[in-house]
Amino acid sequence: MLFKSLAVVATAGLAVAQRPTNTSICDYYTTALLKNNTAANQLALLTLVVNTAVIGNYTPVTVGTGVPGILAKGTVNGTEVNLLPYFSGGLASSNRGGAMGVSVNFLDDGGAAPLMKNMPSNGNSSAQYLLLTHLYEYFGVLLGCSMQGGADYPGYLGHASMYEVHKFMDLSYAEVTYFISQVAASAASFGVATDDLTIVGTALNSAFNVRCAPPTTIIMSQGAQLNSICIDDTCPTAPNATCASYNATMEPAVSNSTSSATATSSGSGSGTSPSSTATGSSPATVTTGAAATVGMSFAAVAAGLFAAFL
Ligand code: HEM
Ligand SMILES: *[C@@H]1O[C@H](CO)[C@@H](O)[C@H](O)[C@H]1NC(C)=O
Ligand SMILES: *[C@@H]1O[C@H](CO)[C@@H](O)[C@H](O)[C@H]1NC(C)=O
Ligand SMILES: *[C@@H]1O[C@H](CO)[C@@H](O)[C@H](O)[C@H]1NC(C)=O
Ligand SMILES: *[C@@H]1O[C@H](CO)[C@@H](O)[C@H](O)[C@H]1NC(C)=O
Ligand SMILES: *[C@@H]1O[C@H](CO)[C@@H](O)[C@H](O)[C@H]1NC(C)=O
Ligand SMILES: *[C@@H]1O[C@H](CO)[C@@H](O)[C@H](O)[C@H]1NC(C)=O
Ligand SMILES: *[C@@H]1O[C@H](CO)[C@@H](O)[C@H](O)[C@H]1NC(C)=O
Question: Cα separation of 309 and 173, whole Å?
Fold first, then answer.
């Protein structure tokens, strides 16, 4: 099915007109590239975009110069970036609920090979499977996939707070910027229009690539969450920053988390959840202007004012 979809991509060409404002990015590009706007095709689109963002371009269809991928080394404004160790178990940077990060190999179920076949992993019970499927689901919400939520394309059921998921990675502005750049490059490689890339890039940067952002609602059923992924002092501070609410959840060992390599890898993908314990997000904090602003951007995605691509 995915192969068929890909063949369609290959022949569809990219005579993509301007996206109407009442159609989400996900819906629009699913229709443009895969024809039928079904849940399965929306998942196929997100699979193409996420897999390409992670491992670099692998499909016969590539608009532009190619995508190195999140796992490849890169340079952002002269700063070298290497995100692979966070995914390969090379750093004790995953939150498994304890006071310190632990090492997990997320390339434990085939690595790049199944991704190149438009799959998340070879099997379906690995750390790799969980991570990739969660990325398909989360970015589908960001991009406004209207058919998501059923068996063909489940809604996001991973951990709610992106801060809790990523906090032991102590990520820098250059690192998060590189990740987002690869998502954008992947989308661009499938013909997503510049205006739509800008919308998505801006939304990702303002929601995740800032320090101390107030709680925002991305997944409606999960409510407002601390979602800053950019942590260290190179990160721009969010408007209406609520650093105190982050410190309240921060473990003492956080500053040491990424330096200690090679803890034991659990690699099972079924580890205990990150402690997304309610992080003192009082209702007052939740309803700050910044939360409303970002929340509105993503709600707009959902409503179809912008799009989807990843
Ligand atoms: C726009 C920015 C980003 C978004 C929206 C994002 C989103 C996500 C999501 C939804 C998950 C799955 C969480 C779960 O399974 O419960 C995840 C996990 C992960 N992300 Fe990110 N991410 C971003 C940036 C980054 C960056 C810059 C890195 C750098 C290496 C990174 C590394 C990881 C890793 C290693 C995991 C697995 C964590 C674990 O299961 O412990 N992410 N991310
Ligand atoms: C968007 O608006 C156009 C024209 O106003 C209409 O034909 C189309 O059905 C609408 N699409 C959706 C998904 O609402
Ligand atoms: C779109 O869906 C309809 C109904 O399910 C099906 O008959 C048709 O073959 C599909 N078209 C494509 C291009 O997949
Ligand atoms: C997971 O994989 C196993 C073995 O390949 C298969 O029997 C099972 O149906 C799969 N489960 C799901 C939910 O895909
Ligand atoms: C890169 O440099 C430009 C121009 O100085 C600056 O605006 C931007 O914030 C920098 N980005 C990163 C990730 O450092
Ligand atoms: C935590 O507290 C320190 C010291 O008061 C402060 O510099 C920092 O901005 C706070 N927030 C975060 C997320 O580190
Ligand atoms: C962090 O690392 C420093 C230097 O390696 C060490 O002295 C300190 O005890 C560590 N702190 C924690 C909480 O592990
Ligand atoms: C910051 O909060 C104030 C007061 O709630 C609000 O008016 C303003 O729009 C917010 N700024 C941003 C960038 O969200």
Answer: 22
